[in-house]
Amino acid sequence: MSVGIFDSGLGGLTVLKQIVKLLPQYAYVYFGDNAHAPYGDRSEDRIYEFTKSGVEFLFRQGCVLVILACNTATAVALRRLQQEWLPAAYPDRRILGIILPVVETVVTMKVKRPKRIGVIGSRATIQSNVYFKEIGKRDSSLLPALFQKSCPLLVPFIEEGMHKSIPAAMILKHYLRPLKQKQISVLILGCTHYPMMKKKIQSVIGKSVAVIDPGIIVARSLKQYLARHPEIDSRLERYQHADEYSANVSFFTTDIAEKIKASIARFWGRKTDVRRVSL
Questions:
Q1: For residues 12 and 6, is the Cβ–Cβ distance under 8 A?
Q2: For residue range 165-182, what is the model confidence (pLDDT) as tens digits?
Q3: What is the C-alpha to C-alpha distance for residues 137 and 134, in angstroms, rounded to an integer?
Q4: CATH tag, 100-214
């Protein structure tokens, strides 16, 4: 049995990379629904159906646990999948998202300046208000100092390998300007693509702002989850001498164009075999 990582495209590879770095002993299956990406401008029903199909594919590959490494899928589809579909279809499997670990980290973290939180993400993630809702459940006093900004043009630049270009830098500055004006002290990268631009984001937003990389947090959260749930952990395959470079990882996508292959290599950090599937 394996751990599955689902994303609408390539951004989830930044999460997978951090998970494999921390927990190389497990087997992993990555599935990117590149044929339907990006999800950010899709309807909620379409996002739900695409996400359910992707998760079901991973279950059929032998994944006992699937992580939605996509803020949009997590915000729109996770709760419905957990409450309506999973108990009836796969009661012995689990689906986790990436938003709650980030929220819990931000709510409890200490910062030198007053905690003023910025969130950047896709239109669907921002419009869902999921960060407002989840942060509010844990500490409503933070809500007056929580500010969001959708950044729809960043993902295309990142996936085209143009995230280090001058136009990408100009657009990033445009997106981050209102958050800088709010004098935020914490910035949540509410899209798994954005860690590819983390250095530039840190440079633009300022060194004093804590930039939250979801991949690092999700990896730590998964380790804690497996420690709390031995009934899941015991079902996972283990490889005693694996490291982040020799870990057992399989890659699938719904679009295998040469551009996708090149992008996967860029996100993952090295070339790898990728298989195409149809849903």
A1: yes
A2: 999 999 999 999 999 999
A3: 5
A4: 3.40.50.1860
Q: Is 70 a residue of the active site?
A: yes
Positive or negative torsion for Cα 208, 213, 218, 224: negative
Three-state secondary-structure class, residue 207: coil
Residue 238: DSSP 8-state: B
Catalytic residue (one of 65, 119, 187, 191):
191
Q: CA torsion 6→34→216→265, rounded to 10°?
A: 120
Catalytic, out of 10, 58, 70, 81: 70
Amino acid at 235: R
Decide if 211 contacts 201 (C-beta within 8 A).
Answer: yes
For 56, 69, 94, the CA distances from 234, given in Å and listed in that order, are 21, 23, 14
> Token digits for 118?
């910025």
Kindly report the CATH number that applies to the domain delimited by 2-97+215-276: 3.40.50.1860
Closest CA to 32 of 72, 68, 1: 68
Q: Token digits for 160?
A: 């085209």
Domain boundaries, the chain: 2-97+215-276, 100-214
Evaluate whether 31 touches 57 at the Cβ level (below 8 Å). yes
Tell which residue, 8, 1, 2, has the closest CA to residue 31. Answer: 8
HSE at residue 120, side-chain half, CA atoms within 13 A, is 30
Identical fold for domains 2-97+215-276 and 100-214, yes or no, is: yes
d(CA 152, CA 157): 10
Residue 191 annotated in active site: yes
This prediction's pTM: 0.90
Mean predicted lDDT score pLDDT of the chain: 92
